[in-house]
Amino acid sequence: MTMTRVALISGANRGIGFEIARQLARKGVAVVIGSRDLDKGRAAAQLIVDEGFTAEAVQLEITDNTSILAAVGTVVQRHGRIDILVNNAAILVDGPGGFKSSLFDLQAETARQTFETNLLGPLRLTQAVVPIMQRQRYGRIVNLSSGAGQLSDMRIGFPAYRMSKTALNALTRITAAELAGVDIKVNAVCPGWVRTDMGGAEAERPVEIGAETPVWLAVLPENGPTGGFFRDQRPIPW
């Protein structure tokens, strides 16, 4: 009897997170949509259920550790396990020091807010889920990063977002190193410039393409890579 894998995806009620959930569900994974607004999460899950696949929602605010622990506890209570964690939720703050601003205009509050969501949220969620994966001796963690966080290609613009994604890449490497020797794969992915609320209408990629590599990393076989940074299923420089 084949075991049904269970995936928790943060910020999955819309955009690339939702498409990752939908593609995983089509692969037979039981997906749990993490959403700040539970009603929106339930509506998104229902769209997947209406296609004939397994999906549900939990309230998940990744800047609130109480919410994280409650969401993880709910998933374990319902399913007994969490096999896949996709750290998808992220923000790109507009305003001073935000999208098109100079580093020298960056306000501490913009940086704090960005790091709280884009780094500390995934950190807390990873800390909550990894002990479950260790007990199972199986897990796949996918961190939605960005080419904007590549030190090898660092440029100007949206400095807080760039730095938060670079830090997320460091989190990826550290987590993978700590879990070496166990079948828990931890990788970062750049989905490319995707047409979402964050990416905007001018973005070059549809969400269907942007979700493909995160989904691939979420279902890696035991001999798959860990501690890597990928775009289009190929390694890219940090």
Question: What is the number of helical segments per DSSP (H or I, 4+ residues)?
Answer: 7
Poorly predicted runs of 5 or more residues:
none
Overall radius of gyration = 17 Å
| Distance between the first and last residues' Cα | 40 Å
Whole-number total of structural domains: 1
- Biggest beta sheet attributes: 8 strands, mixed
Mean pLDDT: 92
CATH topology: Rossmann fold
Order of helices and strands: EHEHEHEHEHEHHEE
CATH architecture: 3-Layer(aba) Sandwich
| Spatial strand arrangement across the major sheet | 3-2-1-4-5-6-7-8
> Quick one: overall form?
globular
Annotation, overall tally of beta strands: 8
Structural class: alpha/beta
Which range best describes the helical content: under 10%, 10-25%, 25-40%, 40-55%, 55-70% or over 70%? Answer: 40-55%
Query: What is the CATH homology-level superfamily?
Result: NAD(P)-binding Rossmann-like Domain
Mind telling me the CATH class? Answer: Alpha Beta
Strand content: 15-25%
Q: How would you describe what is shown here?
A:
This protein is α/β, with parallel strands linked by helices. The chain has a single domain (6-235), classed as Rossmann fold, CATH 3.40.50.720. Helices cover 42% and strands 15% of the residues. The protein has 7 helices and 8 strands, in the order E-H-E-H-E-H-E-H-E-H-E-H-H-E-E. The chain starts with 5 loop residues before the first strand and ends with a strand. The mean pLDDT is 92.
